[in-house]
Amino acid sequence: MICPNCGMEHDNNEQVCSLCGYEFTENAEADMTLSRTESEVMNSRTVSAGKKPKKNSLMIVIIAVLVIIVIGLAAFVIKLAADKKTQPTVSVPETTETTQSDIIETTTSTETATTSTTVTTTVTTTTVTTTKAVTEPPQTGEDYLLAYGWRINEADILNPDSIYRDYTLFDIDGNGIYEIMIRMGNSEADACYKIWTIEGNTVVYCGDIGAGNTYLTEMDGKLYINAAHMGYQHTEEITLIDNQIFTSVYYDSGSTMLEEYYTFGEYVDFCDFSDSSMLDTFSTAQYENGHYTSEIY
Fold first, then answer.
1. Are the CB atoms for 90 and 83 separated by under 8 Å?
2. Which among 189, 163, 168 is positioned nearest to 281, based on CA atoms?
3. How far, in Å, are 188, 205, 284 from residue 157 at the CA level?
4. S-S: 179 plus which of 6, 197, 250, 263, CB 3.0-4.6 Å?
5. 134: number of CA atoms within 13 Å, CB side?
6. What is the separation of C-alpha 114 from the centre of its chain, rounded to a whole number of angstroms?
């Protein structure tokens, strides 16, 4: 029996609640009925309370399963995206001289209800450089040893008894090409300067000038031949026009006897036939035999 006042359980034969002092004797039947009802209610609550945890556990299991499924789907989608991004690189060879590198990006969008994946494919070109043979530019300038050397040898051979056996180089017309003047002769009477120049690849004979009792001087880039003998002096300027030698009077002492001669500039140096140093010094190129041809004079 349960006390209707405080809810404490008692035996059915008890008359007063030991907790609150309620008297069961006045309404014994009603108290019994009430006690049974309350007892049933309490039992019902106890049963309900015992079943509730079972429902909560089931819900937790369901939620955990759903979370695992969602995580699995997310991991699958991420792995699929990573596999598509690591596509192999395709190399396209090119045989070009100029280095070129083009990067082509192709973007493909795949849409689903919940995810969007972007795949980038990179194509890299491989450059192959072709090396061309480099042709050196042709030489410019003159090889005076090759052009004039054989003329000196010829003069040496043809005039073994010459009293003059020397030569000089001078740019008579100022065009950058030096003419050679070979002095030869068996006496003062027949001594002369034989003159050659170079035009293209041809050695051209320009003429000759008497050389007896003379000397050459240079002043302001011009060439002078001086004849001086027994107090008399005659000076002429030497010019070259169209590969022909000309002279013009520059000074003449006339009947006046000179105590000393005028130089009109600096003396021009000469080299012996056996000395090719001047030819080497003035050369600005070096060619093979056959580069030059010569006119017959």
1. no
2. 168
3. 20, 18, 27
4. 197
5. 2
6. 51
Residues in the chain: 297
User: What does each C-alpha distance from 245 to 26, 30, 237 come to in angstroms?
Assistant: 173, 167, 11
- Phi–psi pair at 144, nearest 5 degrees: -70, -30
Among 217, 213, 220, residue whose Cα is nearest residue 251:
217
Report the run of H or E that residue 147 belongs to, with start and end. helix 144-158
pTM above 0.90, yes or no: no
Which residue, chain included where needed, has tokens 């590198």? 101
Instruction: Look up residue 294 and give its two tokens.
Output: 């010569």
What is the tens place of the pLDDT at every residue in 21-78?
A: 888 765 555 555 555 555 554 555 544 444 455 567 788 889 989 999 999 888 888 8
Q: CB of 45 within 8 A of CB of 38?
A: no
Q: What phi and psi, each to the nearest 5 degrees, are found at residue 179?
A: -85, 150
Token pair 């190399």: residue:
91
Amino acid identity of residue 131, one-letter, is T
The average pLDDT across 201-206 equals 96
How far, rounded to the nearest angstrom, does the alpha carbon of residue 291 sit from its chain's CA centroid?
38
Q: Are 185 and 191 in contact (CB under 8 A)?
A: yes
